[in-house]
Amino acid sequence: MSAPEILVDARGHRCPVPTLRLRRALEAAPAGTRVRLLADDPLARIDVPHFVAGAGMTLIAQTSDDGGFSFLVEKTAGGSLA
Q1: Is residue 80 part of a domain?
Q2: CATH code at 32?
Q3: Considering the entire predicted model, what is its pTM?
Q4: Which residue in 1, 3, 19, 59 has the fewest CB atoms around it within 10 Å?
Q5: Is 9 part of any domain?
Q6: Count: domains in the chain
Q7: For 31-79, how does the pLDDT look when each residue is reduced to its tens digit (9 = 90+)?
Q8: Looking at residue 66, what DSSP letter applies?
Q9: Burial degree of 78 (CB within 10 A; 0-12, 13-18, 19+)
């Protein structure tokens, strides 16, 4: 059985909004949940992986196409969103 996945569409918003929406989704989710963030702000390529690493979460995949980005993040039990 695969982990549940939440979609957060933050396209059309500038940083830090995509990262803040990702954070909010992770805060509300149980450990093991995967959150897919869609963003089109070029700064998201830098901000999102930095946030994920700092929060102790796992960046499963990062892709880009047509000026947009997709980040798949898994909430880990030991992560810290404080």
Answers
A1: no
A2: 3.30.110.40
A3: 0.92
A4: 1
A5: yes
A6: 1
A7: 999 999 999 999 999 999 999 999 999 999 999 998 899 999 999 988 8
A8: T
A9: exposed
Half-sphere exposure in the Cβ direction for 36 (13 Å, CA): 12
Does any domain span residue 79?
no
> How much is the pLDDT for 1?
54
Radius of gyration of the chain (CA): 12
DSSP per-residue codes, 3-50: PPEEEEE-TT--TTHHHHHHHHHHHHSPTT-EEEEEE--TTHHHHHHH
The helix or strand, by DSSP H or E, that contains position 65, with its residue range, turns out to be: strand 58-65
Please, which residues have CB within 8 angstroms of residue 75's CB and are 6 or more apart in sequence?
26, 29, 30, 31, 32, 33, 34, 35, 57
Enter the tokens of residue 82. 């404080």
